[in-house]
Amino acid sequence: MDRFARGPFHVGYERRVDLSALRAKRVDKADEQRKKAGLDALLVWKDENCRYLTDLRPQLIAGKTTALNGALLVEGKAPILFCSGGERDRVDRTMPWIEEAHTIPIIEEKALVEGMVKDILGPVLKQHGLTEAKLGLDESNIVFTKALSAQFPKLAIEDGDTPMQQARMIKLPEEIVLLEEATALADAVTASATATVAEGVRECEVAAEAMRTLFRLGGEYAHVMTPFVASGEHMAPPHRICSDKLIRHGDIVFIDIGACWNGYFGDVARAVICGKPSDEQKKIYTAVYEGLKAGIAEMRPGRTNKDAADALINTSDKYGLGGRFLSLFIGHGVGIGANEPPYLGETLPGAPVYEFQPGMVFAVEPLIWVEGVRGGGGVRLEEMVLITEDGPHVMSRAPFDEKLII
Fold it and tell me: What are phi and psi of 13, to 5 degrees?
């Protein structure tokens, strides 16, 4: 398999990803996990799960995730799409693999939701003998679940998100190719952002140039809805937005925007210095940099997410900074979901230990911050890492700032 990005176009002069085959394989994986979970069907509303099953690239409305589009997976049938009226005509004309689609309202207003369950979803469930079934549901609002239970009191609503997470955890070869491409795009976005950093430039201007590159190159979305550019003291503690703050000489500038391409996310982040760094800034940066490298070295079959997190933290602690990590995980799975299990360095109750398996893909993103450092004492560095039989393959190639490495 390629370990680089060939290019995003569909061309005739070399073989690239067969997207029709990929769609079929993804549905098969989801159906296998449905059966393992003892479910009769899966009904999904999360953006990433709907895309995984149908390849619908919808218009996304802020704050309306799980309220716009869904898909029903029934054994022996192509996924049934429930989509916004704004998508329906395009679906009918451009997505021939969708054999059945139904127009639905935004799943929010009680009367409309109850009508949708009774007159749109209900007949589909009846047609497939699912009114008394075990139905896996990934996520929905309370209005929908109450309407579903009221209309079909013998329907057992079960966890449908865990089977979808299991299906998505080990990436198919075709998915890895798409992730390589998304990472190449994320590297380009990062390069545009770092090239914009200068005294007198605002954080929002850096984000603007990055987003211009994202869309110019055919990207779909940033990795996060709020592109993350933080300069100087805005990284200690981290302000996870881009603002009107001016970048000044001596500021560390952090950039975390990434890119989505063909439904898959490349999550790459870098910190650079504007001007000349202080000794304290170099110490913090080097602690993160060396910790990142040590953690990635542990990411191979037979080792665990705990092994990687421990190696990362212990290496950073050589600089006395092992206890200065952001109170968040230090790595996460990535694929058709921008952020998905498994996690590295999660310390909240219930965090499971996973053994690394070939085909897992992670964004490893340690962040250390120290308050009171002139020009900012916060650094995060982030790499895209694929687990292979031979060990970790780092997909991202954006350069590190050598002026900040001791």
Answer: -95, -5
